[in-house]
Write a structure and sequence with these properties.
There is one protein chain. With 193 residues, this protein is mainly alpha-helical. Helix content is 46%, strand content 11%. It has a three-stranded mixed β-sheet with strand order 1-3-2, with helices on one face. It has a two-stranded antiparallel sheet with strand order 4-5. The protein is globular and about 50 Å long. The chain starts with a helix and ends with a strand.
């Protein structure tokens, strides 16, 4: 099943609300075999989160301790998808999860669908005039989750967006507070793929 369909099934099975908070997501994951979810400061460069299990024990999810709540939610959803895929391999002989990076793309789609459910997103998407930045602020979800849901849920037949719909989100490479940024020049932005 697609990552979006799997997210819908998980929502139905777990009883998650239509607009889950970080606290709700955290408690749901604990009920589904994640022993601990913890912020750490020593993740390898460019890794925002990961999960592991030692000798078959329940999983531990680690994420960047300084991450914004919306980012932590996305990481938790991403890692949950990968945990589900690992469990499928154990439960169903012959099932093989996708290799990296393919599993990561699916995990991001699953996470976005888990956090931003279709009915809520479609309403907000059209009310904001297709504004990804405004949706990020309105929904309090990560830009990447909003962009993924936009791509997955836009009705291309009735919306002026074509199938070549692309969203690029640039991240400023600066440790300064946003109020101190001044001008926006190319040198202070980076693209993460």
């Amino acid at each position: 099943s697609s990552p979006g369909k799997l997210a819908e099934e998980f929502i139905g099975h777990s009883g998650m609300s239509s607009y889950p908070s970080l606290l709700e997501l955290h408690s749901t994951l604990l009920r589904y075999g994640v022993r601990e979810i913890v912020g750490v400061t020593n993740l390898p460069h460019a890794l925002r989160g990961h999960h592991f299990s030692y000798k078959g024990a329940d999983y531990i999810i680690e994420y960047e301790a300084q991450a914004w709540a919306g980012t932590v939610e996305s990481i938790m959803g991403h890692e949950l998808y990968e945990i589900i895929q690992e469990r499928y391999e154990t439960l169903y002989p012959g099932y093989a999860r996708k290799p990296v990076p393919l599993i990561c793309w699916d995990a991001n789609k699953f996470s976005a669908a888990l956090l931003i459910q279709a009915r809520i997103f479609r309403t907000a998407f059209y009310e904001t005039g297709l504004d990804i930045i405004q949706l990020h602020h309105r929904l309090q979800k990560a830009y990447s989750a909003v962009a993924i849901r936009a791509r997955d849920l836009v009705d291309h037949d009735s919306c002026p967006i074509t199938t070549e719909f692309v969203i690029a989100i640039y991240e400023r490479d600066s440790t300064e507070h946003p109020k101190e940024w001044g001008s926006n020049v190319r040198e202070v932005f980076q693209v993460r793929c």
